[in-house]
Amino acid sequence: MKKKIQVGVIGAGRIGKIHASNIVKNFPDVEVKAVADIYAEQVKDWAAGLGIQHVYSDYKKIIEDKEIDAVIICSSTDTHSQITIEAAQAGKHIFCEKPIDYDVDRIHQALDAVKKAGVKFQVGFNRRFDHNFKKVRELIQNGSIGELQIVKVISRDPAPPPAEYVKVSGGMFLDMTIHDFDMVRYLTGSEVTEVYTNAAVLVDKAIGEAGDVDTALISLKFKNGAIGVIDNCRQAVYGYDQRVEILGTKGGISVSNDAPTTVVLSTETAVTADKPKYFFLERYMESFETEMKEFFNSVVNDKDTVVSGIDGLKPVLIGLAAKKSYEEGRPVTLQE
Amino acid sequence: MKKKIQVGVIGAGRIGKIHASNIVKNFPDVEVKAVADIYAEQVKDWAAGLGIQHVYSDYKKIIEDKEIDAVIICSSTDTHSQITIEAAQAGKHIFCEKPIDYDVDRIHQALDAVKKAGVKFQVGFNRRFDHNFKKVRELIQNGSIGELQIVKVISRDPAPPPAEYVKVSGGMFLDMTIHDFDMVRYLTGSEVTEVYTNAAVLVDKAIGEAGDVDTALISLKFKNGAIGVIDNCRQAVYGYDQRVEILGTKGGISVSNDAPTTVVLSTETAVTADKPKYFFLERYMESFETEMKEFFNSVVNDKDTVVSGIDGLKPVLIGLAAKKSYEEGRPVTLQE
Amino acid sequence: MKKKIQVGVIGAGRIGKIHASNIVKNFPDVEVKAVADIYAEQVKDWAAGLGIQHVYSDYKKIIEDKEIDAVIICSSTDTHSQITIEAAQAGKHIFCEKPIDYDVDRIHQALDAVKKAGVKFQVGFNRRFDHNFKKVRELIQNGSIGELQIVKVISRDPAPPPAEYVKVSGGMFLDMTIHDFDMVRYLTGSEVTEVYTNAAVLVDKAIGEAGDVDTALISLKFKNGAIGVIDNCRQAVYGYDQRVEILGTKGGISVSNDAPTTVVLSTETAVTADKPKYFFLERYMESFETEMKEFFNSVVNDKDTVVSGIDGLKPVLIGLAAKKSYEEGRPVTLQE
Amino acid sequence: MKKKIQVGVIGAGRIGKIHASNIVKNFPDVEVKAVADIYAEQVKDWAAGLGIQHVYSDYKKIIEDKEIDAVIICSSTDTHSQITIEAAQAGKHIFCEKPIDYDVDRIHQALDAVKKAGVKFQVGFNRRFDHNFKKVRELIQNGSIGELQIVKVISRDPAPPPAEYVKVSGGMFLDMTIHDFDMVRYLTGSEVTEVYTNAAVLVDKAIGEAGDVDTALISLKFKNGAIGVIDNCRQAVYGYDQRVEILGTKGGISVSNDAPTTVVLSTETAVTADKPKYFFLERYMESFETEMKEFFNSVVNDKDTVVSGIDGLKPVLIGLAAKKSYEEGRPVTLQE
Description:
By secondary structure, chain A is of the alpha/beta class. Chain A has helices spanning about 15-25, 40-50, 60-65, 75-90, 105-115, 130-140, 165-170, 170-175, 175-190, 205-210, 280-300, 310-330; strands spanning about 5-10, 30-35, 55, 70-75, 95, 120-125, 150-155, 190-200, 215-220, 225-235, 240-250, 250-255, 265, 270-275, 330-335. In chain A, the strands form 3 sheets. In chain A, strands 12-11-7-10-9-8-15 form a 7-stranded mixed beta sheet. A 6-stranded parallel beta sheet of chain A has the order 3-2-1-4-5-6, with helices on both faces. A two-stranded antiparallel sheet of chain A has the order 13-14. In chain A, β2, α2 (about 40-50) and β3 (about 55) form a beta-alpha-beta unit. In chain A, α4 runs parallel beside α5. The N and C termini of chain A lie far apart (about 55 Å). The interface of C and D includes residues 25 and 255 of C.
């Protein structure tokens, strides 16, 4: 019988739990041997329920465990690059939640460590594995709409996070838009060359007081000549709004939201349909499983990961440019 | 630690495998202790992969196993009632795939045995647990559309079964429409009182030669005064068509198909969207899990099952009336 | 300069006014010379506003006017056949609102008179000229969906007529469903051979007391082997519901309702769209103009009309069969 | 009998013909007494067909006609302001096609002349009268979506104009986007304060060689704090794309395209719907009639016009700022 891949999950918050649970349920050839969380006591029962043997408060226990082949890094963002470096040096394959870091130098250090160690490294841009967006990319790549002209991403949360969260989030562009920066790279297969940010505080003054914005239109230029705009808001009261719309010389593509049901109720007053699926857990659950499948596929078959270190770095660079553009009120090139 | 419910799966064809796999993955408190299939040799590897300890060719081994609390009957239809009787007599809770039997007397015998033994019994009308149809029922029950007037079910398969299958299927009304007979009972909360079948062989002559039809409009009268029509076809080339449409005195409800993605491609020639999800495995996978959850909930909490023995019997009675109506070219009442 | 076609409009109720106004506005080569209405006094101002010279209380003045080339018969149904006969004998081309008559013998007499006189005769089945349904027929005729299997027409009014109207209407099948009987003939290019009516009084008891039904599912068999069902209700509170749905061996066609706008409002509670266009004036206005255009085209270019006398007769025959089926509770063939 | 309003139409190209024909057909209280066109000979037959008495090659004949109450200015853009001045001085009410002029000083001169003369003046921003956009504005104004946050206009032509046209068009921002600049003012009820243009030549190099762009994303800031983006392209191969999408604190509004039919064809390969209505004549025909109705309503009832001189000026100012932004690669405020 084939030996199972042994995995350690570092950070058992919301996303860490999702990944651990997905692996236990759906990956018979993978075993979650250990979980590390600074609040180890609080995750014990949950881990036991999944049959995970070890729960540590110190992630280093996982790094030091020679039997563990791969780590899933789901701890707070400020620890990602450091843990990546340590895990790489210990020869472990790495799945790292986004963003790798808010600091570009530290990202480079982490990626250097990965390169040196020759381990697999995948960043958690799960939306690439979403059924809708995957098909958009396929249609673009197979030439269905010709050359790209306009790329639009709509990405709005159902409700704003607390101001406390906003303060440590790295700002909307690195916390929320970063997914969309990845999405435009993924869809277009091209790099962003210039960014202009038109943003405002229109949802919650506390977000403004925390030094951030909550509503933005980020205008983009791409290397391949196309132009684009990302549309973000921390609050869309009708629910999680996740769409893209692409115009090319031979056609257009649009994606509408997924809804819980297709039921339409028509009464004397209105024709009513479902709101979109509530938030990312409902909307993207399938993609969390698929990205993990791709990661283990890379590990087992010694293939390149489908979301590389560079794919982790670039959205951070675009995010920093978007922030600068907002602060300076001018278009900012990615070369600056 | 709480003792796990021990389960035996009888019949490991397509649907048996789905149930077994669902239980293993998603029910940590349930254990599939054994599987029985007349082709035991062919299912061994699959069972091992799921960690199922025992694979028998004779289902009686499961019936005789005192540790087994419940059976999931997924064998061929002609064996359902017999196994139900034996399992009931052995004191096991029973989840039985639809239909219970093609023979009304044998259904009664099976239900009598269940009643006598006091075990739980649930029939596999999984579509009741579908997200779309569940919401339709909720809207009807909460009075959103007032009194029911017209109930329409559209239920078409993507491709016809082989004529060989048709011959042993019990005929379209008991094999395919039976789901829809259950659906109208579930949605309306009322009983069918009269049936008129308008049917033809329009897909495949071999189906006609096998003594069956492949296309039908089955007109219904309900006890609550509403009227309805079920629309069946063994072949809709654009895919599995599963919709309902209800008219009431205060409004209407409609359900459209689920599609793999929401992507729309617009080109010089057309605006194109996805076809429906391909077939019942793609379309109803979630409902197979939910019905099982409800079954174990009934077992553990000693509650009535949500799809009772009567719910298993009635659609067979309607199906037989539909068949008679077709054969005699006249409306047939359920009282006859 | 070419001589204008001179027209007399007989009956200036709602539909008569629509036709007269359409001709005045959109047919520069046609002149409405006279209008006849038993309430001549009440339509005088309206006629003057359109520049119509003569308003008579007796339609015979129009029949006797040698200058008048064609009549548009919009009077009450019981007068259609008589006026048709007189107009034909006077050599006038005839556009006659539906139905020609409730009495089959009188229809035959009228059609005989038309034939003998060699005048053009078109029946007012305007829905044939609707943008949606015209395209459905084109797709069927060009083979887009192969051989027809299932034909469904949904046709529901937003609100029931007063019981007073119902009493003189000829009954729902001849008053309302007659449009749908024409539609299935138009769409399929085939004849109805058998009818089974499943109907009830579910909207307004007064309609039942007037001897009529208000909700019906009329099951159909066609000469080409296809089967179908017409779905009627005198009241759909969400508005005028006018759809068709066709299944063929190579595909399916569906038509949804036209709405006043495409605006969708999404709020915290719901995603809301427009109800359908309110009633036939809003929904079918364009088709009233088009049918008139086709009529004058037949007159001017001496072509067969696009809705012939037979097309006027057949739906009445189907309607009478539908009525009989309802009364006798059995399928009725059109040959009986 | 009330005296009819006498109208002169100046310029009988495509849009002039539409207005003249609309008035003749639908405004019984208005008479098109004369048409002026520099190619008088070419429009003679068309005018005769509509019963228009006079066709002049010199528009001054209309200005000098004391009986004429109002002029409809549909001549080439470079003549609008001059004719406006002359018509105002002659005391005639004025409906003027957009834009009033490409030169801001000349617009001011025209508006001054209008003011001095006290005549009515309406600019041809017909899209304000479109069923879809009118409803969007209503929903915004009645508070359905709370405070505005993001305003998006999608406005794409089905096919690019010839480069010859582009050269004299005033450039995309003044020729095409000007409608969208008006739309955002109309929808938001707020003024644009800053513009940033992200544009490119992606459709036709000849357009670039003519000194223009063909694809643009124009980022906007509004006085009320909202932000917005207009999305333009000279070519959307799938047809005329005319949509808006608004996000507010209490909800979102979206408008999709109008299509010729609601027919959906589902086959083995795809689910296909109609492309949008082809171009502005098909899409906006109704609005041309409605804007005229509003104009005559202002004239007859001595009310302010619904699209004022300021409404004609502002979009030109925004267009010029958009052009400057593109040329200088920076955001441009409307105050500069």
